[in-house]
Amino acid sequence: MRRYIANPLAFPAAHPQGYPTLKDEPEFDARKHLAIELPSQTTSLSDFGYPDDEIAECPTDLAITSTFRILSPEGAACLLEVARLLEPHARSVERISRMVRGGAYQSKFLRDFCSSPVLAEAMSNICRTPLLPHTIPHQLGHLNYNPEKVGENVDKWHVDTLRIDFVLFVTDPNSVEGGEFEYFRGTKTEVENLKRAGMPLPAEKIVQAELPGPGYAVLQQGNMVVHRAKALSAPGERITLVNGYVPRDVGFPDFTRFDQLALADPEHIAASEYSRHITWMGREALDARLNDFHFSADRQAMASELEDIASILSNAARNLRSSEKAKMEHFGDE
Fold it and tell me: How many domains does the structure of the chain reveal?
């Protein structure tokens, strides 16, 4: 696989309408607010049963980690304050009853936290591959809030529309009844086959993350790990944050699902952010080829490289034109 090591993409200077800026919020300080620890355990995609050919298409063989700390107590308290300030902007989609996406446009604290180079370096070390904060702003700091109806799952069984992300508890998971984060220790094809046959997921393959308190998270390859957030069984407050990353090597196939993003985000936002993300990928691949210029008579290799770069743009153009008939994908509640 041809490697194209990309440079970071700055957060957009343009501010979209409908995303009012928060006032009087805390200021993010990585020295005070981060307290990153390494997870004690990681589980690989092969442990989940994925075959070698599917793993080869992934930027890391990581499936998911055990719980580990990201925020200090002060950092967790500041993030909770910001999440509560953003809560009036929550909206719903088919899969999630109450969520805030695009909060990084509204909150500088959220933007600086989610784009922190220190945090990205730590996630890179855990994944053993270079990562960058996601180049689609709506994939930075996605917030999920518990439904107002007790007994309704926060999120259904699903895989993510991005490759790598962490799920962080903003509120204390031990202060509420229910609301557990669960994942299926198996492949998404296995889940698809079970659902198609009308069978439940086997309980012995469902793992429940153990979370000591707010500011703790799990890191996962979200498009490969089937997971969900369970319902609260009594009234309470449950808030989680999902922060996304892209592999710095843009030679890996892009997993951004524009058809799904277009169902979750305002149309002009989803299309614009996706187009910008793809333009960045194409530019970085071209720059890498220019920087690695050398003389050669291998015309076939040159043609293949150009076709690979062109396909980044052409596939995205096709996705932009063909998303109207898409339906939101998930595996249901049970």
Answer: 1
